[in-house]
Amino acid sequence: MRPRWTRRASGPSWPTPTWPTARVSDAIAAYLRAGDTSKHVEVVAKAHESGDYAELTKYLLMVRKRVKDPKVDTEIVHSYARAGDLPALEAFVAAPHLADLRAVGDRCAEEGLHDAARLVFATIPDYGRLASTLVKLHRYQAAVDAARKANSPRTWKEVCYACVEEGEFKLAQLCGLNIIVAADDLAEVAEFYTQRGHADELIALLESGIGLERAHMGIFTELGALYARHRPERLMEHLKLFAPRCNVPALIRVCEELELWRELTFLYVAYDEYDNALGVMVGHAAAAWEHVQFKDVAVKVKAAETLYKGISFYLEEHPELLNDLLKVVESRVDHSRVVDIMRRAGQLPLVKEYLVSVQKNDLQAVNEAVNELLVGEGDAAGLRDSITSYENYDALALAGRLERHEDTEFRRLAALIYKRNLKWHKAVALAKTDKLYEDAMETAAQSGERGIAEDLLRFFVEEGAHDRFAECLDRCRDLVKPDVALEVAWRNGLTDAVMPYLISVLRDYTTKVDTLVHERKDAQEASKLDEEAKKQQEQAANAYLHLNSYLALPAPTSNGAPSPPAFGDAAGFDRF
């Protein structure tokens, strides 16, 4: 039986071994001595099986001298790598050759020959594969340098993740900055860091990332979300600086989830969701409420109900600031409804300042609330100003309340209200009850009613107020008939008191008669002048008609010729 490595050859040949299992290295050496290159493919295959790469390298170098084949050069490089002869490998690839270095590099990487692969990929150069190889060699700084030259997202991720796994966070950050500028890759990097519990390092990465020229909304948003979850004390500052560059709805969801009410309010304001912002401040006042911000938001809310909830909130939680809030939202609220809210809460005095400021609108609810407060405070002067300046209120109801008031000044105001509403009898009666005779006489004079004035005269007589009787006659002289005044005075022995009135009346009557006489005389003279003027006009008109009769043309005959002038007409014949 022929041994496995025996062969026949006509020229220089590989000696046929006599042992049944010849060593591959000996066989390769035989081929080398014989200079036989014809079986180099088989030799390579057998050497791979046995691992005799040192002998194979020598053989292939001999073959290379005789055969120009890329496969031979490729196998030489691979053999150097398998033999671990890195200096020889480096020298070979530095010289001219036909080797497929990429294929060799891939084989070395697959076989775990990372040092050899590093040399090969560096020679090509293939910086992406070089970076991967350097990662496997734990040469992370060099891997980062290679990744920078490769500038491939895939390479950056590979090196970054490897650095994170090894705790090389500074190098990982250098890589990460080149990844997160792509919005699609940011989420992947953030998830990788987060799953491994490296939130602080991820925050540091994104804090560096927001300063990049290519920084995008995703970076600012993701950093905000990280602050919310891990560094809530830093979130507000971040929002104040970068809210316009964040995805606000996304951060709103995060803050709602984590119950960061102050930051949530800020985000709602930044997103022009003022109603929601006010709702958060009302619902979570301990964390979110701030007076100045509340006022700024209140003037911008769209839903009126939200605004009234805010007013009720202030009424319950911050009553001392309620007037300040109402002053700001004065143009946005229904003042009548505010009055109703305060009245039901029994807190009308709390908002007096606001009510006085909006009374200029002359609303009934506001006027009545102000009047009610002034009555309660005993401020008669203020109430007088109110009822004389603003008329839209239930006057008779207020007057009815005031006429029962224990203070005379308020009862005077009741009489004033009756007078302003033409309730003359009640006004005079109230003044008489309180012995406010000046007011009674003034009211009677303003009423223009003779009966009221005459009744007041009789009242003064009954009360024995003779001086008031004379004064009343003077003030109401246009209303009191002389015969009535004289009768009352005569019956009660007040002739002296009535004399000034009678003198004044007689003077008035005399003046009126004289005036009438003069007016009649003037009218008669004017009438006489008018009659004379009319006569003159008639004479002038008659003269004009008489003159026209001399100038009239003769009437035409039946055949169209003019008729002869009549005797005495102005056609050449004198009448005489």
Automatic annotation (TrEMBL):
SUPFAM superfamilies, per the entry? ARM repeat
A single GO BP annotation from the record?
A: intracellular protein transport
Q: Which GO terms describe its molecular function?
A: clathrin light chain binding
What top-level branch of life does the organism fall under? Eukaryota
One cellular component GO annotation, for this chain's record?
plasma membrane
Q: InterPro entries from the xrefs?
A: ARM-type_fold, CHCR, Clathrin_H-chain/VPS_repeat, TPR-like_helical_dom_sf
User: Where does each CHCR repeat begin and end?
Assistant: 31-172, 177-323, 326-469
What's the protein called, per UniProt?
Clathrin heavy chain
